[in-house]
What we know:
Elements: H1 7-15, E1 19-23, H2 28-39, E2 45-50, E3 61-63, H3 64-70, E4 79-82, E5 85-88, H4 90-99
Parallel strand pairs: 1-2, 2-3
Antiparallel strand pairs: 1-4, 4-5
Amino acid sequence: MIYWGEGNFSLFIFRCMDIQVYTIQNCFYCSQVKELFRRANLTYKEVLVVPNDEPDLTSSMIKKEDFSNTYPQVGSFPHVIIDGESIGGIVDTAKLLVSRGLVSGKKA
């Protein structure tokens, strides 16, 4: 379970977390979750989920089959993982960031 704490210490803890965002190409909600992290001024690693027959994998890519084996409960993208804990997609991530005061419910 993620510990969030209170006050400025909470913000420090959040900014030091390992945040991974799994995305696919041409995904509107994937772009939106990345914008959400930008607004929160949080650093994350984007991992692109690619077709199983992708010939040129880089360190920032994972094959769909490997992703599905690692996270069998995930059926849509984007998908956010913080310190190994599955957070969910754009809605769950937005709710978390708003509840921690890292973004407001309004667009800037």
